[in-house]
Amino acid sequence: MIASSQKHWTGDVADLLRVDEGFVLADVDTRATPGYEKDKVHGAEDLKSGAHQLDEYQERLYARSRVDATDAAVLLVLQAMDSAGKGGIIRHVVGSVDPQGVAVAAFKKPTPEELEHDFLWRVERRLPESGIIGVFDRSHYEDVLIGRVRRLAPAEEIERRYGAINEFERRVVDSGTRVVKVMLHISPDEQKSRLMERLERPDKHWKYNPGDVDERELWPSYMAAYQTMFERTSTEYAPWHVVPADRKWYARLAVQHLLLEALEDIDPHWPAATFDVEAEKKRLAAS
Amino acid sequence: MIASSQKHWTGDVADLLRVDEGFVLADVDTRATPGYEKDKVHGAEDLKSGAHQLDEYQERLYARSRVDATDAAVLLVLQAMDSAGKGGIIRHVVGSVDPQGVAVAAFKKPTPEELEHDFLWRVERRLPESGIIGVFDRSHYEDVLIGRVRRLAPAEEIERRYGAINEFERRVVDSGTRVVKVMLHISPDEQKSRLMERLERPDKHWKYNPGDVDERELWPSYMAAYQTMFERTSTEYAPWHVVPADRKWYARLAVQHLLLEALEDIDPHWPAATFDVEAEKKRLAAS
């Protein structure tokens, strides 16, 4: 399915980016622009035209959740290596939606309290309410990515988590939330140039962490952990999408499209009035 | 103080809107545009120029909270009669800030669990973290507004709350959060025409509630409750501002200005690097 407002795609983007049986991360070209044949300038224009649509869909979703008491929501899960552009997605894609309709949860290193609980405890608490687009900036998947690479938990525990995640997401989807899972995929070279830019600009120094260079050494281990994660948790009800992200403009356009599709799939229409409109006009006029 | 980027004001807006000793709500002209002599078209342009500034200030605030571990945050408290434009402020003013830097909390009728606790319990839990602009869409002030008008609590309890609020806000301010309290003030006639518009547009029906007309009957009681609230809770550390809101464009410009001022008062600069920039460039280049 292609969202109806999205005439600029030359293929079914979701299909092209979805992680299906036989997917191999190493085969993905991080500079590619699957389904899109125009350039950066057009990409920015097309992003702008989708921005209004996304905002309106979310407002309709919210309106319906108030009146029809539906439980529909959308959850965007963002995973990526450092500097791949999660922040840019939130700012430039999610930023087009009314702040009242968005809830961003950034998951950092777990606190001692969080570590006292199962790894899904802190995630459950940040699920979006009905009518809302929730964004996870990192997520429960950290627990099978850095958790695996840095051996933060025993191997059996990591193994257990894949199944626990699938059961958890099954329940979330069944409760009415569309789960859109995205890995932004950049090359090590692209990361190097982005980190270098952070070092060159004093207003970007705060985004740089010397630990980022250490993590780069573990790039192959991370890619292996992602590959396993895809194989174990890309399900029919909550599939993964790998979005080539060396070109930021493409990644934004693609993620916007995935969100638009999720919202079209819910098909939120403006809810009908639950009162007699003409009678209310009279009451109001007399007040 | 006038925020340095804000050359379009002809007076000290915060001063003009602040609730000081001797303030009388009934004397406020809801169609006025204190401190601004240009029209709606210019107002929209000036709002746009402030939008970028607000976004940058918030990013600097966030950056500093990560590196310098400061506790600075901003909390915008919005109170108003129905249809006065709280939603428009959030969408058009707060919406210019990166969603990662914003946390909106909408306080509705308390849940049974919330009623089991003191009225400030649910509010405390939604205070913004450092680096963030928090927005309260309604707030603890409902408990001395509708709480007083509809007699939802005994008179002594309402009395107690004013003092409790002041102590609470004193603590919030002392912990590093600038509290910007705004009442958007419209006339009953303006409300009538806005509610009528909601009835006339099917895509706005969901925003209409027949109870809104009943509340209109209580307008004088609400204004009296606001007047008392101002007298009891407009403090030096967390003053109230009454923003004439019959002209939406003015209200947005004024609230944007109050936020810019709060951020300039914190003066968040980009934090200095906590590492050796040149050494990191070399490490990164070699990685």
Automatic annotation (TrEMBL), chains A, B:
Q: What is this protein called?
A: Polyphosphate kinase 2 family protein
Which of UniProt's keywords are assigned here? Kinase, Transferase
State one molecular function term (GO).
Answer: kinase activity
Q: Which NCBIfam families does this entry report, sorted A to Z?
A: PPK2_rel_1
Keyword Plastid among record annotations: no
- Keyword Transferase present in the record's keywords: the answer is yes
Residue span(s) of domain Polyphosphate kinase-2-related: 51-267
- InterPro entries in the record, alphabetically? P-loop_NTPase, PPK2-rel_1, PPK2-related
Record organism: Microbacterium arthrosphaerae
